[in-house]
Write a structure and sequence with these properties.
The chain is an alpha+beta fold and about 110 residues long. Helix content is about 25%, strand content about 20%. A 5-stranded antiparallel β-sheet has the order 1-2-3-5-4, with helices on one face. It starts with a helix and ends in a 9-residue tail after the last strand. It binds guanosine-5'-monophosphate (5GP) and zinc ion. The site of guanosine-5'-monophosphate has 14 residues, from strand 2.
Length: about 110
């Protein structure tokens, strides 16, 4: 999808700070970080929202959460704590329609979220 911001980042057409990549996932720093660690875990394949997942995507989504846990550990936040978030559609504030798992850590994160 050439009009998708995250597809363009994954293709290297738009610069981003790369944190990790493998055959299924690309992880970049968020451009507007909301915590000392704020990265976006992106599947290489375009999927617009969580509503579009199928059973065939179960392993992919599992790998996104396992990557979040591994990155939290790499950055020393696995015991202090961290948050993972998928925003879905308008009321949750989804602004880029290519699924992405936010990983936030490094400060006390309040609950409930805004
Ligand atoms: P959403 O609001 O869809 O859950 O999250 C989109 C995220 O993408 C936001 O946290 C926003 O800061 C981030 N973002 C928007 N444009 C860019 C960009 O060009 N590069 C990077 N690395 N992040 C971006
Ligand atoms: Zn995309």
């Amino acid at each position: 999808m050439s009009d998708c911001l995250f597809c363009r980042i994954i293709a290297g057409e738009i610069p981003a700070t790369l944190v990790h990549q493998d055959e299924r996932l690309v992880v970049v720093k968020d451009l507007n970080p909301q915590a000392p660690l704020h990265v976006l875990i992106l599947p290489r394949r375009h999927i617009a929202t969580l509503n579009d997942l199928t059973p065939d995507d179960d392993a992919l989504v599992g790998s996104m959460f396992r990557r979040a846990a591994a990155l939290a550990k790499d950055h020393g936040y696995h015991e202090r704590g961290y948050r993972t978030v998928f925003n879905v559609n308008r009321e949750a504030g989804q602004s880029v329609f290519h699924i992405h798992l936010h990983l936030l850590a490094g400060r006390a994160l309040t609950w409930p979220p805004g």
